[in-house]
């Protein structure tokens, strides 16, 4: 067991370095279901009162379920938009000889590199003018638009790996270009679509600045904004509540990762040659 | 169905690949487009199936002008070099795809798929995916998918290039059998002269966008019109000697080789440079014109040996003979050329 003897110092260093992080996560969880006496870090009683936000809506606030639904709507809709547009635009940029193709490719690249947050004031004014300020639809559109360059670029990369002959074979078999895309090419890039959908969902789920600026109050509030408003609230400062909501907020992300990590690794089988 | 390319031209941008090519393929005929890479044979194939738009001329299927028809409406079956099977579909779905697109009823689809599977011998594989098939099996599936729509013409783009030597031999005869059984007009694109000769009724040999000669394999082998054709057909390949007309003979400079003038060379001027093609089987112990040289290379092929004989002037003749053990590299030998079987070409490569 020579290898183990050699690796123990590294493991020790890693353990020491990551201990604070692990401890912090552990306390994040422990603190939400216990109370500790002032000045102590050792909990003395078990309680569920910090989770009471799940069944009690505080005056002046939206119900947590309404906010969660908003977050869910926000994340799924913008992810769906990104996937639909990217899967089509990526194909066009990868395969079709459209006029201005190189211009669009460069444009997409530029938009991807562009710090979209610098446009926030302009976006704010535009949304206000068209009446989408403080509405979920407004943030969804903006978020989807900001994530799209990445999605288009990603999907283009996936389409580039699909053999050209498969499409030509489909055309020879009598299928229209659209049918070829939908029935023959799209199934080849399924791992890409899935990865992009998950990615865009997580990006939107974790998005804070856009909803904070463009839909800060009212019925469009999402979880990140709700969470921030808890800290901002100086009158009823409740650290344990903040931690509980935080845990509630990251739970879906963790679940998604655990459920789909294998799926993401599992590269879709297939090929053109044996 | 008869296929006619009428003064067909193809250019990519400013680069002209094929100019004014006329080619007729008879009904039920299998024709090989043979040539080195970049000679335009694949371009021709893709023009017939409609993937490439033609730059000039017409393409006719039967009496129908299909020049401006999109690929979907031409009813052409294509087998691609990489087979291009749809990896996410089973073999059955792959073969059924063209029928489903055509909107056939599922009963009809099932019947025709079974029929095709029977023709290409893949009945037990119908529920597998392409990744679970060997190269030869994928090839059969690709053939079935190309043929299931009963196309007017079957196009094969280097269909054997991805197979190992043994499978290539098997699929060669299989493709020919299927073509004969269905009676379909077929065009085979290949750079392998053995494939072209063994599978096809006629060969169109191409070079730099032109058809150099079109003939049956035997005719082309025995009567090549140019040095290029002679050099392309035959394995091991033909060897060329540089000669000069001298009196009633062709002399190879710096050597004692004197070949009698063939009939076509009667009125060549004294001193004209020619090139003489001698196939390996027409050079050996039997023959009428002696040639002395040194053995420079021996290649064992099992049943036969291939000998390279270096002449005094440095040029090399090849001879293929039944295996013999009395000759080794470095030996001086005197063998003979069958002078009635040699080909003579002028300095432009045209046959004399």
UniProtKB/TrEMBL annotation, chain A:
Subcellular location: Cell membrane
The protein's name in its UniProt record: Maltose/maltodextrin transport system permease protein MalG
Family annotation (PANTHER family): MALTOSE TRANSPORT SYSTEM PERMEASE-RELATED, MALTOSE_MALTODEXTRIN TRANSPORT SYSTEM PERMEASE PROTEIN MALG
Topology of the protein relative to the lipid bilayer: Multi-pass membrane protein
Species: Aquamicrobium defluvii
Ranges for domain ABC transmembrane type-1: 68-260
GO cellular component, one term: plasma membrane
Keywords carried by this UniProt record: Cell membrane, Membrane, Sugar transport, Transmembrane, Transmembrane helix, Transport
Transmembrane segments annotated in the record for this chain: 7-30, 72-93, 105-127, 133-154, 192-214, 246-264
Automatic annotation (TrEMBL), chain B:
Sequence ranges assigned to domain ABC transporter in this UniProt record: 3-233
Entry's Gene Ontology cellular component terms: ATP-binding cassette (ABC) transporter complex, substrate-binding subunit-containing
Keywords recorded for this protein, A-Z: ATP-binding, Nucleotide-binding, Transport
Family: Belongs to the ABC transporter superfamily.
GO molecular function list: ABC-type transporter activity; ATP binding; ATP hydrolysis activity
SUPFAM superfamilies: MOP-like (SSF50331), P-loop containing nucleoside triphosphate hydrolases (SSF52540)
Lineage: Bacteria, Pseudomonadati, Pseudomonadota, Alphaproteobacteria, Hyphomicrobiales
Protein name as it appears in the record: ABC transporter
Native organism: Aquamicrobium defluvii
Pfam families (UniProt xref): ABC_tran, OB_MalK
Topology with respect to the bilayer: Peripheral membrane protein
